[in-house]
Structure formats: structure tokens, C-alpha cells
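Researcher: I'd like a structural prediction for the single chain below. Treat it as a standalone chain; there are no partners to consider.
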Amino acid sequence: MTIHRFVPNSAEKIKDNMLKSLGLTSVEDLFEDIPSSLRIKGGLKIPDAISEIELERKVESKLEKNFSPPEYLNFLGGGAWLHYTPSIVTEIISRNEFYTSYTPYQPEISQGMLQSLFEYQSQICELTGMEVANSSMYDWGTALGEAGRMAFRVTRKRKIVVSRGASPERIAILRTYCYPASIDVKEVDFDPKIGNTDYGSVHSVVDHDSAALYIENPNFLGIIEESVDELSQLCHERNALLIVGVNPSTLGLMRPPGEYGADIVVGDGQPLGLPLNYGGPLIGIFATKKDPVLLRQMPGRLIGQTVSKDNSKQGYTMVLQTREQHIRREQATSNICTNEALLALAVSVYLSSMGPEGMKKLGSLCLANSHYAQKLLSERGMECPYFSGSFFCDLTVKTRLNSQMLPAKLARHKILGGIPLGRFYPDLSNVSLFSFSEVHTPEDVQTLVDALSQIDERE
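Model: Treating it as a single chain, here is the predicted structure.
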């Protein structure tokens, strides 16, 4: 047996002592609960050790195969979008006192981190129009999963209705969260022409046995849900919660969910100053109304502001921690007992540097680029947008080519995009989703339009 210098228990004597103290005779005894048919026969197929120099070269050679900005234009979206990260964001989160702060269990020595998280919560509330926000979650999908289970705890009803126009991947995560709690997830269709949630379907499916309705605005197809007031009223008439998913970069222009009666808002803060990073780490947004029942059932961390006994000093601390598993163990509201602290700080710095006018300009640029692309593609005779509903920064385009084949064709033009909607909706096999942001120039849009036109003409 090989004795590894970094693994002390690989030494035979130490291993034997550990097995003896456990009352076992071999390492295999530790895995007796795993059926032998599921175990690997023989050793792992791991290459021999190489030097650090060789390893670095090998990794670099693999990384060179990646297609990434700025060498390639990126029009991908659907959950992680290409946005500009101001240098001030990177500068501040790179400071040692923030890099090394994981989670503020000791508030008396974590005031700086706690204050930044409190600021993040306040900014998310202002952005979404809600009254209470936690100090972040893992990503949009897990925030939605927690929202679904929270809706069940609040209403004690085991049916959640979701719009089929929401992200199929996020719906899948919601189902994963709901299955162990025996919560049924029912989908309602979107209008095949307009692209928004079909109100008639919602009216027939959301009933007094429903815990919540989940919609995204804009939805996964890029379409703005224009019946949000009616959907909100319907939910509340039937004692169901309204859960709204948002791309926060749109909220500089669009009505915040709090204005049309959302009970829970989820989303991802990635567009707010976070690079793509191969799709992660991301940061989940979670906000609710100021309702004692909702507040108590809300998962994750809440940072509160307080003052000293003599009112001379202001301080910050974690509040309502009994919801978390490190306090209540198996009786906790959720197993979430951490947050994306460094990324929450990045979002807070980004929002502070942008301000309301900056967020408005951000939304305007994204909107302008997507509509400019739509104009040029329509002039080339392409069906764009595929849906007639109002769209924001995500644009649906129908081509003669099957959407599954389009990304590889575009890659030859050094372009990344679009998402093949046929992966999720069989009836949209020739429709792709392209996303536009403030980083795209008119020349970038023209390059995409030219490439799509050439590919479409050849088919």
C-alpha cells in the first residue's frame, strides 16, 4: 500500500489503530451498506503523478479550447448574463478583511461584514419594492425551491402552480425541493402567440387548495408579463401566495414586484456586478412582505441593526436565527444556514455605485440593444421576435435551422448563442433565445445579425 505524505491515515499502523477503535477489520467494512454491484471493481483510472509545471501546461492547454469573451461575442443568457463589472467592485471585495470573512457568527468582531450585508438587504428591498430581504442564498433556483417550501409552511397547502414560461431548469429545482415534502407542482401553459402566462389556465388551476403561483417577469422567453395585477388579485382571492422571479437588471425600468402585490420575490444577483465564472458561483435573491408569518418562515440569514444600551453606538447582528439548522437542527425552517457573503458585498458595492439613475440607464441600454437586434433581423426577413408579447433584454428568433445545431454554427463566426428552446419546448424546435446587455455595441449586434442571416440563408 502507498503511504501518502499528506494523508497520515494511509500508514498501515495508523489505519489499523483506527479500524480497531471502530470495531472493524477492514476498510471495506465501512462501505458494507453499498451493494457490491454498485462498487467500482479494481482501482480508479487515475493518471500517474506529474510535476507542477507539467500540470500547469496541461490545464492551460485544456483551457485554450474554451470559447469565451472578449475573443467571442456572447449573447447567451437564461440565468447567467454577460454584464460589465465596475472596477470598484473587484477592488473592494478583494480586500483581505472581506476575502477572509466567511460567516459572521461572532457579531462583536464582524461589524464590517454585517453592515455590508445589512446594506445589501436594504438595497434588495428598495430594488424589488419588498420590505424584508435575507442576506442572500445560493442562486435563483435554490431560492425558488425554498420559496415553494415556505409557501407550503405558511398556507399548509400542497399544490404550487408554476407558469410554463418560467425557466424549465428552475422549475426542475423547485420540483426537487418539493418532492420530499409531498408538494405537487402543476404547470400552466403560456400563450403560444404572445408568450406570456395564459390567464385562463391560471384561473382554472389556481384554486383554494393552491399554496402559491410562481411567475417570472420577464419570463424565460424574454416576455414581460402584462397581467401581473390580475394574477396577483386572483391569487389573493384564493388565499394563495404570489411568488415572482426577477432578473434584477430589468428593475431600473420595470415595476418592482412589490407594487403589484408579490408575497415572495426570488431571483439572481449575478447581473449586478458578478462575472460569469463558468456559471457560478451565483447569488440568490429572496425578499418578502413585512408579514410576521412570512418573516418567521423565511429561510436564510437576516441581519438586523441595533444600538447600544445607552444609544451611543450603532451595531449589527444576526436576528431570528432559530430558523436555521445550526440552531434548531432537524426542527429548523430550512437547512440553509449560510449565504453568499462575498458576492452579496459585490452586489451591494455595484448597486451603491450605480444608484437609481445608473440602474435606469442599465435597463435602457439592455432594452435598446435587444430591440435594435429585433429591427435588423426583421428587416432580413427573419421571424423575430417569435412571440408577439413585449420583450425586454431576451429575444426569441426563429430560423430555418434546428435550434440545437445553431450554437455550433455561430461558434464558427466567434459568437456564443443562442439557447435552443427546443431543448425545453418540443414545439419550439427552430426557435432560439438571445440575450443583450449594456456591454454590446451596435457593431456587435450587427455582427450577430449578419451571422444569423448567412446561416439562415444556407439552410
